[in-house]
What does this fold into?
Amino acid sequence: MSAILVEHIAKHFGTVKALDDISFSVDKGELFGFIGPDGAGKTTLFRILTTLIIPDQGKATVNGLDVVKDYRKIRQDIGYMPGRFSLYSDLSVEENLNFYATVFGTTVAGNYDLIRDIYVQIEPFKKRKAGKLSGGMKQKLALCCALIHKPSVLVLDEPTTGVDAVSRLEFWEMLKRLKESGITIVVATPYMDEAGLCDRIALIQDGNIMAISTPSEVIKKYPNSLYSVKSDDIFSLLNDLRKFPDVHTVFAFGQAAHVSFKPGQSAGSSLQDYLQAKGHSGIIISPVQANIEDCFMELMIK
Amino acid sequence: MRTLLFIIQKEFLQIFRNRGMLPIIFVVPIVQLLILVNAATFEMKSIKVSVVDLDLSSSSRKLISKYEGSPFYKVVQTTFSNDEAMEFMQSGKVDIIIRIPNGFERQLVRENHAKVQFVINAINQAVAGLSSAYSTSILIDFNRELMQDWLSPSQMAGLKNIQTDYSYWYNPKLNYKTYMVPGILVLLVTIIGLLLSGMNIVREKEIGTIEQINVTPIRKIQFIAGKLTPFWIIALFELAFGLTIGKLVFDIPMVGNLWLIFMSGGVYLFVILSVGLLVSTVTNTQQQSMLVTFFFMVVFILMSGLFTSIESMPDWAQKLDRLNPLMYFIKIMRMVLLKGSAFADISPHFWSLVVFAIILSSLAVWRYRKVA
It folds into this structure.
């Protein structure tokens, strides 16, 4: 049985279509990522899964329980970390944790095993008010509070947004360890680089799921030939590349430009000549393996 | 039940941790009672009088001396010029001009009647009405003395004359503070109950904590009860605190049973907290909530009979006022404290509050469930 099963879910807000006929399933113990830009519908989907809003149509179950009919049972069994920090900023770290433990009818000591690794990092600040913690600490505390009742499904809405790179890595390490203890984790993120850390990912855009697969599978399905092109003047490089015949897409990617060609076509040596003729210096052209972001861009133009 | 206790515990923790909250709870009532009760008075003392005596006879002087002798009047100007007196009136230095025309005494003796003119500043119509009534009663008094002086006892006996004497019940010295303190207390309790509770729930919405609460097994009803109970307790404490100040500082009478006050207070607060909850379901930020409650509070307070008498309102307003919970509780407070009314006396007001409590709380909970 799947931990989460979603069939033809749709949700409108006025005239805005937030989710448009979405279906997917998440297996038990899986780390499942939703990758998509802001406004793609990730938060709406998560709010439906956590029984906070009711879908307009379709059916969704968590551990076989219907999100509309059995919402009360689901709430016992699900941990949710909203995208916005939602703990009491005027209560201390300890008080927040105790409060959430008691409302789930448990104690911090009772489920300490699960949160120990995370909690020890914020324990030195346990008397500090939650509002006075740094961004990364806040996330750790929020994760502790979401885990304190030993949920079987953990739903995290953009947990690493606004967190520094080191803390982000740490956070994903924690998620991996939680996954090992058998918890199903669903996580949303706008960061493409985090996608590779998930077991499976769903690329979501404008309320539609464009692809669901393992990260490597998504990459394998990338149809075009892709090159990384560098030169000293990245801005005019992008403009010139777009004018090159047969080119399919050009995107800036860090210090380089990712240029793709439709299947069967390739840059060959003519690209080098073309750029030289345009007066570029320091040109490096190398074929590269597509990453999730390239795949996402490709799916977006379709 | 256990969950409820934890929520209440958490609420109290937050309330007492909020630096703005403690002064509101303890300082505001003291300040309000001390300032409002002393300042918001309709008692008339030292009405400033200008005397324009153009007669200068013994009768006119006798009349003026009656005003000088009254504790309510203070003669600040004596002049022969109308214009001068009017100037004083214009610049706000006098409230009333008493004008005795030339030939006042002669007319009185020869023609048996004479005229006196009062010019009254009616910017504040309540004060104007009262000072005209006072002035008239002094004049009537003066008139009676004249008759006694000039008529023989046998003639006096032939005149029919009704004399009025007053005995003021429940507030024999007509002490305005005795009347105000119970009303101001209701005001206080209302502010604590309505403003703070309404804002508190909206705050959870505003800062997003309600999102995290909603995914826990806490039931909505538990959440509401847990949020409102602390304010119910604090407001009742405030009532006791205010009554103590009223007793110690103003020595207000407490004739009736205090349990009746607290019982009615408990029900009244239930009504007020329900209104607060209702407001929080229709607003999304603390600012909106404050504006909406403020609007309701001003209407409720001005129509509550705290400052103005309900009986003198127009008929439609009196009917409308039956929807004003403040009115009932102020009545109960005054009846029990000043009059010593028993439950049977206040029961119509009490049951009205109970009906309000039932209707408003079910409405609020129903709205809350639908919205959040």
Q: What stands out?
A: The longest helix of chain B spans residues 176-207. Chain B touches chain A through 21 residues (CB under 8 Å).
